[in-house]
Amino acid sequence: MLKKRIIPCLDVKDGRVVKGINFVNLTDVGDPVDSARAYYEAGCDELVFLDITATHEERDTTVDMVRRVADQVFIPFTVGGGIRTSDDMNKMLKAGADKVAVNSSALANPQLIRECAEKFGSQCVVAAVDARKEADGTWHVYVAGGRKDTGRDLIDWVKEAVSLGAGEILLTSMDKDGTKSGFDLDMLNAAASVVDVPIIASGGAGSSDHIIEVFQKTSATGALAASIFHYGEVAIVDTKKAMANAGIEVRL
């Protein structure tokens, strides 16, 4: 059985790590390279960097930051934000990223997923999906840092993304983002029921119990969190011990 992964997320804006609630009210929480090294030393399994304003402001993710992170950490890390072409992905992979996440650009041009998967392999292509529950009970996919409703149904989109070659889904519940109220189990299970690639659960982690719960009640293979790790509320090593005690396969 695959070991479950603890994945700190570093949202980057203007070269700094930031954190907000429901995608707004951002506060500065540190330098991305220093943060990455600290998380690596604390025992995380992977890292995710998302340049949360790259698409909105139409600028590229900082290749220099990726290069500096790759010099400091020796675990897989994913970079996303402002990836519009396979050349953009190539730059990130050459700079040292293991995987690259596509979001807004893939929705605008789904063939980007196919092109990147064919050039670099599906294992490098992460479909990052931000979704919010609508009044009718379905989930819609949002883009541009959660600013714009695409009208696309979440379930339809994850199926299409995987069929085009995405090797992993990073699924963020916008309703849960930053609330520390637990992961959106219903949304995760709905998505997992239609795809057969690993899913990283994102949005809502407030405690070790929430991380244990998402692994016990969904088939997510990774749990992504930001606030609880950034502010030292939860230690990765303690979370992993609690997971192991709960019978969850984890790398200690």
Shape: globular
Count of DSSP helices? 11
| CATH 2nd-level architecture | Alpha-Beta Barrel
Q: Give the helix proportion (percent range).
A: 25-40%
Low-confidence stretches: none
Oligomer designation: single chain
Domains, number: 1
For the largest beta-sheet, the strand count, sense and barrel status come to: 8 strands, parallel, barrel
Q: How confident is the prediction overall: mean pLDDT? A: 92
What's the Cα radius of gyration?
16 Å
Side-by-side strand order of the widest sheet: 1-4-5-6-7-10-11-12
- Alpha-carbon distance between the two ends: 15 Å
Order of helices and strands: EEEHEHHEHEHHEEEHEHEHEHH
Can you tell me the CATH superfamily?
Aldolase class I
In total, the number of strands is 12
Top keywords for this entry?
single chain; 252 residues; alpha/beta; TIM Barrel; globular; amino-acid biosynthesis; RibuloseP-bd_barrel; cytoplasm; imidazoleglycerol-phosphate synthase activity; HisF
How are the secondary structure elements laid out?
Layout: E1 5-13, E2 16-21, E3 24-30, H1 32-42, E4 47-51, H2 54-57, H3 63-72, E5 77-80, H4 86-95, E6 99-102, H5 104-108, H6 111-120, E7 125-133, E8 139-143, E9 148-153, H7 154-164, E10 168-173, H8 185-192, E11 199-202, H9 208-217, E12 222-225, H10 227-230, H11 236-245
Parallel strand pairs: 1-4, 1-12, 4-5, 5-6, 6-7, 7-10, 10-11, 11-12
Antiparallel strand pairs: 1-2, 2-3, 7-8, 8-9
Helix pairs in contact: 1-3, 9-11
